[in-house]
Amino acid sequence: MNTTTIGIDLAKLVFQVHGVDVRGKVTLRKQLKRQQVVKFFTQMTPCLIGMEACGGAHFWARRLSDLGHTVKLIAPQFVKPYVKSNKNDAADAEAICEAVGRPNMRFVPIKNTEQQALLGIHRVRQGFVVERTAQSNQIRGLLGEFGLVMPVGIRCIESKVPEILEDAENGLSGVTRALIARLLAHFRELDRQVDELEREINAWHREDTASQRLQAIPGIGPLTASALVASVGDAKVFHNGRQFAAWLGLVPRQNSSGGKTNLLGISKRGDVYLRTLLIHGARSVLRNLNRHPDRAESWLARVAARRNPNIAAVALANKNARTVWALLAHGRDYQSGYHSSNPMAA
User: Fold this and answer.
1) Which of these, 8, 13, 77, 5, lies nearest to 48 by C-alpha position?
2) Cα(13)–Cα(11) distance, rounded to whole angstroms?
3) What are the angstrom distances between the C-alpha of 278 and each of 131, 245, 249, 283, 314?
4) How far is 205 from 216, CA to CA, in rounded Å?
5) d(Cα 316, Cα 305) in Å, to the nearest integer?
6) Whole-angstrom Cα distance, residue 47 to residue 4?
7) What is the 3-state secondary structure (H, E, C) of 161-202?
């Protein structure tokens, strides 16, 4: 019988494959070594292939798509309910095969090499930012042990620490001065790396029309715009803006039963990095709200007046996410105060 649907449990060296025909009857159970995968699927009739969205999944999705197969990536948490018993590679492959055939299953967009490269720059930059913050905190902590308390702000490290090292009467020993100087050099190197990666992201942003279109939205800058474009790819994989916002984890969690709706805090599903960028951008808009009296009657001002600032920031981030979907899915430019003629599509 012809295999119509296949589930692949990805791994570093040995892949587990599970296939069924159009009636759901098992036609294939096989282990493949990494170097055998391309040859095996080259000889197969094009079919639907499902994989978990894990390390290497986008690479294999592109390779198998080039062979004529239809490849779908599934978030691991959506595969777990289809595992019938104990976890092993064969059970996982069978669960993926069953999950990919569900009509209401949600899939992860497949990224191309350019998207993955840009997202790699974003992730490495974020890692350097975390290391820079940790390094600044370590410098503050060590100086605090000697009674030298520094002002708040990461930029104070660059301006105040050299003054402390040059002050011969602050009680620091030679060993401590050498240690702080070493940590300051490391801090400066991390800061330089962050600046260089930001320049690369800004250069990509200036050459991409979709990213520039998103920057017009209040609360979205080059970093957020480029990360959204690289992560989403084709926004039409989401049916509407609400689904896109839910994918980012910006909608309330529900605990509803018996016809009674109970909404909790935001779900925090999806990409933490994108959600963080959107919420931080919304907070910057809120901080600048008082500087523009002409916007005192805006939707955001009314929300901020009656709700906690964090709730208002998440509300604006949710709204911005829906706007991002509309601009990417329909290829439009941002218009302040725009109202859709079909509100259900937003």
Assistant:
1) 5
2) 6
3) 22, 11, 11, 9, 8
4) 13
5) 14
6) 5
7) HHHHHHCCCCCCCHHHHHHHHHHHHHHHHHHHHHHHHHHHHH
CA dist 321 and 202 (Å) reads 21
Q: Which residue has the tokens 């040059």?
A: 166
Element (H, E) at 7: strand 5-9
Q: Name the residue with higher pLDDT: 234 or 219.
A: 219
The 3-state DSSP class for residue 149 equals coil
Token pair recorded at residue 224 = 């957020």
- Residue 149: Cβ within 10 Å count: 8
CB–CB of 106/78 below 8 Å?
yes
Distance CA 64, CA 6 (A): 12
For residue 15, is pLDDT > 60?
A: yes
* Identity of residue 64: L
Asked whether the beta carbons of 71 and 64 are under 8 A apart, the reply is yes
Averaged pLDDT of the chain: 89
- Identify the band that residue 266 occupies on the pLDDT scale cut at 50, 70 and 90: confident
What's the rounded Cα separation, in Å, for the pair 240 and 344?
8
The dihedral region occupied by 59, where left means phi > 0, alpha psi between -120 and 50, and beta the remainder, is alpha
